[in-house]
């Protein structure tokens, strides 16, 4: 048989990072992103594990998030990016955004 030595191909990894602004006085904020995906040349199911998930609360500062994709032959590919939470400082000059109007 053919031995699969090719790792899955990851797409949609937010390598530029995920910036989040917390309200003044906050010590954390909820971060959201579109989760990366992966496909494998074998056509088999790729399993994914991640250190954090969108919608979770992140502390102030930078948190590394890693997704690991594993194909049926145990070849792996990773997507690593930083979620950076900073506190809003300065003047709020933006009007509120109305959704669902």
Automatic annotation (TrEMBL):
Record-linked PROSITE patterns: HYR
One Pfam short name: HYR
Keywords: Repeat
Lineage top rank: taxon: Eukaryota
Annotated ranges, domain HYR: 3-87
Keyword hit for Oxidoreductase: no
Record bears the keyword Repeat: yes
InterPro entries (UniProt xref): HYR_dom, Ig-like_fold
UniProt name for this protein: Hyalin-like
Provenance organism: Acanthaster planci (Crown-of-thorns starfish)
